[in-house]
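sorry for the late reply, my laptop died twice this morning and i had to redo everyting from scratch. anyway the thing you sent over, i finally got around to it. pasting the sequence first so we're on the same page, its 337 residues, then the predicted structure underneath. double check i copied it right bc i was rushing
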Amino acid sequence: MVGSSSGYIESLPEAVQRRIEYLGDIDEQRSDLEAEFDAKVKQLEEEYSEKYAPLDKELRDIVNGVTEAPGVVTEEGADNVPKGIPDFWMIALRNEPHLETLITERDVEVLSYLTDIHEESLSEEEEEESFTLVFKFAENPFFKNETLSKTYFMGDDEDLVIRDIKATPIEWKSASKNVTVKVLKKKMRPGQKGTPPTKQTPTESFFNWFTPPPIPENEEEIEEEELEGLQAAMEDDYEVAEIIREKIIDHPYLWFTGEALQDDESSEEDYDSEDDGATPPGETDDESPSDDEDDSEDDDSEGEGEEETKRSKSTGKTGPKAGAVDSQAQPQECRQQ
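ok and here's the structure:
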């Protein structure tokens, strides 16, 4: 019974009870070692964060054309050579299979102005596990913000429960530049003059991620079905944050070139071969993959001459570690050429 004694231990012989009591002493010693381990891990993380910092800065300076890579000489007056590495962060994001399913063609143009992604810790001691993801943008025709940030406030229990999520509101310069909505023109009656009326409807976009699901203060007032939907939305939201935090920020070069994608594919193939095994002699595998049908839907929208595009297709993965990438798929860096 949880939180109470069943009386079983008390019914055992005294010698057995003393052995059990000593097991408690052993468990306390192990707990002390675990606390010591956690403290040393934290110390190592802080030590190596200081070592990573100059490398991370150098990478970002080269990407943004602040400094030049050693040995690279650009001829004076060479106007056809851009500064830094254009579209670096946009391509790195699109090469991650799960993120690619969220990024539409309209998002691509906005993300081409992205100049940096990094993580920041919260200063408060009680927010040790909480973190902020910061996206920096060059001046662009879409929104006024120089940075977009998203903060995850984590609970202090072992499961790291999300207490709250806060994000920067995006200040879109106009409705036609807002990639999270579709502006529909209504037809005017014959002879009617003036500007055609319009209607805004939500549409798929990576930038919807900057509008986190609202977390109520009192979950007891929410119906069970609504609460399950909220939990699913929060898990999906946090999955994107973890991918960006653990993959893109630490090794953007590998995702820009597509090498990380190939490593993921190789590791999954190795895992599949170990898990599935070979077909026994004399037996055949009758299962065959089913064909998937793609549905498309066309909508008319206003976007200063822009047509609303469909969501980018996935490279074959449904999540960060699910499925296998098509062997014919090329990294985004290759497709851009």
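The longest strand covers residues 114-121.
thats about all i looked at so far, will dig more tmrw
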